[in-house]
Amino acid sequence: MKITRITAIPLSYRLPEGKTVTMGIGSTLKRDCIIVRVETSEGITGYGEAHPGRSPGAIVSLIHNTLQPLLVGMNATDVVGAWQRVHRMQLSSHGLGAGTCLALSGIDMALWDIRGKAAKMPLYELLGGSHRRIPAYAGGIALGYQSPESLAEEAQSYVAQGYKAVKLRIGDTVKNDVARLRKVRAVLGDDIDILTDANTAYTIADVRRVMPVLAEIQAGWLEEPFACNDFASYREAAKISPLVPIAAGENHFTRFEFGQMLDARAVQVWQPDLSKSGGITEGVRIAAMASAYRIPLHAHSSATGLNHAATLHFLAATENAGYFEACVSHFNPFRDMFGSTFQIGDDGCVEPPRGHGIGIEVDESIFDKYPMVDGPGYVVKF
């Protein structure tokens, strides 16, 4: 069974006026996603999701003009061989680095979808896992900068749905962050896990000021306080408080960058995104590295049900798996455009689909509703 064609389909959705969510990386203007379709000589089609990287047109071009010629004609079940070929011809030298990794992630996910469909097995079973319930937190583009009272009300609404954990966006001023953190903890009580994400907006000085408050409210982690390659700051932050683990990984690409993170001994929670870090093939390798050092793996989620379903399968087959990031964004039509991928239960858990492959039936007729709007999806004030 050979790969015959690879197609990238970019989709965009402009947020309604006044409905932006503001966080450390800026204020949202639109949501983007890239659906990757891989066709085969035996008529089996697989689908995956590539992260748009704030430049969806560039990732689409990379898939069509660079990666497709490398991979067409290869065995569609040879995910390791496909990954190695792209690594050799793009990632190892003279390539487009992170952009290639985003593009490859979507292709690799689609190839795993094909493998599952060909084997007539759900992905979690193909990966060696089982159908089980996975704890989830309320995340996605939500719980952004707003008044403490409004933020607490939003967080409370997710707890009412069944979530036992929520992720708050910090990285504003330390004063504002502290007020929001204390308010949410007071309203939710002590039984709900509060996770925090600075979206790379903090300095070391900010972390020194906010970390005692994170310890006070018993935060589950401080995610991405700094840029992904600022290992010096991560090492310094890890010394400030042993009570609050540092989390990162959604902007680290391939096991080699996670290896650098391991060497730094500064990040205690790993968060690979299967639509960014190199796909499912590389996600399995990253999970194995983390497992050897007893590092919990809480996978990051992207925009569509394809990523969400693939992530649930992956976590169901991962020994050191932690939370699933459930997208609770109010304005993300891509989450449910193929139907609901997950349902939060009273136990705060979700479970993977049972269908073959990723288990998502893709209806391409819906794509016409969301023509690509190229360019970044966030406005940032410098």
TrEMBL record:
Q: Which SMART domains match?
A: MR_MLE (SM00922)
User: In Gene Ontology terms, what is a biological process of this protein?
Assistant: amino acid catabolic process
Entry superkingdom: Bacteria
Q: Which organism is it from?
A: Pseudacidovorax intermedius
Keywords assigned: Magnesium, Metal-binding
Protein name, UniProt field: L-alanine-DL-glutamate epimerase-like enolase superfamily enzyme
Q: Name one GO molecular function term.
A: magnesium ion binding
Pfam hit, one: MR_MLE_N
Q: Does the keyword Nucleotidyltransferase apply?
A: no
